[in-house]
Amino acid sequence: MCTTVLREICKTFPKYTSKQFRVFVSLRSLGYASREYAHEERDPAPFFFDSNVQSLLRTLTRVDLNKVFRKRKTGDLKLEQPTYKFLTDEQLQDALKEAHEKSSQLLQIPPVIKVRKPIDTVISNDPALQGLETSKFVFTDISYGIKYSQRIIVVRETDGTLRHADWDVRERMNQLYFPEHGRKLKIPRMFENTNLESLLNRKEYIFLLDRACIQFEPDDANYQRVTSITYQHINDNNDFEILRSTRHFGALAFFLTWFKNIDNLVLDLLETLHIEEVNVLLQLYEKLHDQSFGAEKSDEVEALIIYINKAASKKGPLELAVQAYKDLKKQRLQLEKGIQAAHGLT
Amino acid sequence: MLPPGSGTGQFSQFSKKAIRFVRKGCTNRPFFHIVVAEQRKEQFMPVIEQVGSYDPIPNEYNEKLVSLNFERIRHWIGNGASISQPVQELLGLSGFLPIHPRSYMTAWRNRRAEKLNDSVETKEKAENVDSQTSK
Amino acid sequence: MSFCLRSINKTIQHTIATSRWNLYPILSQVKVFSSPKIIIGNSTRNTSFFNKLPADHLWKGITSVSNAGKKRGRGKTLARKKDLNRGQVLGLGKANMLWPGLSAPIIRGKELVERQQLPEDPEREKKLIQLRDKMGALKSYKLSPLERGWSGNKMPGRSIGPPDPIGEDKFEGFDTKVIEFKIVFNMKGNFGRKRRQSTFVVTGNKNGLAGFATGKAIDPKAALRKAKNRAGQKLMHIDIFRGHTVNHDFFTQFGATKIYVSQKPEGYGLVCHRAIKTVCEVIGIKNLYAKVEGSTNVQHIVKAFFLGLLRQKTHQEIANDKQLHLVEFSKDNEYYPKVLASPTVCRKADEIRHHEVMDFTQYCYDGRIVLKRKKFPIFYTKHKSWEVHLKKQEYLRNLDKTQTYLRAEYGELKSFLTEKYPECRPHKVPPKEKTSEEE
What we know:
The structure holds three protein chains of three kinds. Chain A is an alpha+beta fold.
């Protein structure tokens, strides 16, 4: 009902048409620009890894275990028969508890960090080696038990310079000598803009984000390009529900809040009557941008109204949504009163 | 069917060891394993351990790929293993050992050959131009 | 003698020729002015082996075998006799002539029909030849793969449609399949050996409703109908777990036939005796494994299987029986414990007796264990030649993957080196040139 009210409002006030009701997404040349956490700007990592922020993001993810443990295509050639067990009450509780713990692992949000700086450390320069070779040498240390990021990979240029390899070579060598399952040596075609567009139009967000997590490191510019475009597409099309209860929702919420673009999400939450989540989102906003709306204390729309006045970009639709929400609350209260009166409880 | 990288060759404790290439790959497509083997053993006999690989054919990005297990190489050098010259050259280029004199020699010879080539070419060109003008 | 025959022939030809000449004035009297065609008899020698013998004798030459040959079973693929008169009508021939009184009425309306030469029909000859070609060939009883049964054109495994409706009630969505189709004999006092067709069919709606029955009659069709309709009267309801498999593993027995049935995940298919497979198809079970031990009499197998299906317990019954929660752990959903059924009162851990069967499969098989034969490596893997073979094949170990990769990357089998070495290309088989016949 609330949705229809909002829709009506937006029809009557064309000035305030939010993208959620009229989706103008002409993606002929992918209408989105990449928005990275650039390395010259503010570092999101200390905010993201803060335990309070993490718990807020988890609340926003709205964990539904049925969706977390949804049936996935494992890609196994051999089908596996499920096992059946007889469990007592305690055993069942233990098993459920274990699954709950596992869910936090499955829902671990991919890290949000700055884009890395290019590597240009020269180790030595020996011009006497000029003319030795017509191609570069890449030396990789394959000693056992070294982390990907700490592996020594050096390049001897044709002019005799010995320098550390840049990121793309590093990743190529790591993948070549220590292949990671699912990662490809070359960036798959699906991450090219034209193919990305068709995936986005088909709403294959989870597939796209999962694949990006496997293919790229989180501080790769390409990763941030793909994810940021996906997040913007989701935001414009109001497809938040698709990402709920997945590990990507936290990253999405963080992205939107970091770039001050939470209005669509707030509208969505209001529509579905999740006012407490609106407050959580505003708390996150306060933490990231050092502003205060008193979101921690408010359990109704007070903080939201302050936010609308102070920081919102879509003031009109938000105010109308708040009004619609209030009306609905009032109606419900009246209905409850009426029911109680009918039961003779007053 | 490939033997494990840890090696399957039997060896005596006191025999002389060497770090050297073993040619793998096939006809017209060389590929080398860098291995530790007993000096007296033949190239294709089971090795003590594989410590790296070397692909002498440049790839798409014009790179020759070398992988080296420096930890094990250090261990074997410490145990008195000798290093064959091509491997020494590679280790030198990688910055692990000082650059092998042979590398400098090759580089110098290549440069000289190139210079010679260039000068010959320029001379020929000049001659060509001269002959054309005289005509 | 031969001279004599020849002279007789000549005289006959002569008379025919002259008679044709004689025929002309008669025909001309019937007002033929439009096309006064003269029929001229040619004077070839029309005698040969073919017109000296009657047709039957000629046919016999190519369609029969000697008695002794017949006894040995020879001549089964010999040509059949053709009726060359078929497709021919009196008065209509090669020359497309209209004969009033023979191939057309004499008077049409008020006008007298005239003899007329119609344009020649080139199709006629072709049609006749086609008809004759068809006649001789053996009729093929090959069934289309969709309606084929277990084997060739035999009945078992074939589908014969739903049972006949009874009054208003129709068997919608039902299908009947033949399991057994055999001839049985009975000794009668005055008839002696009496032969009947016996059929055993199973019918079902592919959604858990199924029944089976036998039917006997002298006529095979009647037997099938009887069995089908009887089966429609004996329907049983069978639980299908998640719409694709059995509730749980079970053991079942009828006479000397023992069956171990086990539940399988989606996509596994029906891996079992063909009779069980047919029954499953009719019931609507899609995934299952069954091992038949002992007698493989199909009627017994079907009966045992139905018994087992009917004796299955629901998960709630199992949980109540055990007084424990029945929980499913599946790889698809990351081993999330899914409670299938909970008892009203659950037992504590110390109430479980030490010798109790706690394994679900064991519980379902009622303590039985399926005998599984140990799998030995294939004999040739021990040979030296196998080792040599593996060594020789080693260079192919990633060939297909690389080829797939190159095709995906460049659209064909080439690499970044192809430009440098254009001569190094895989050999391409040139496309086949179309021959004139194909066109």
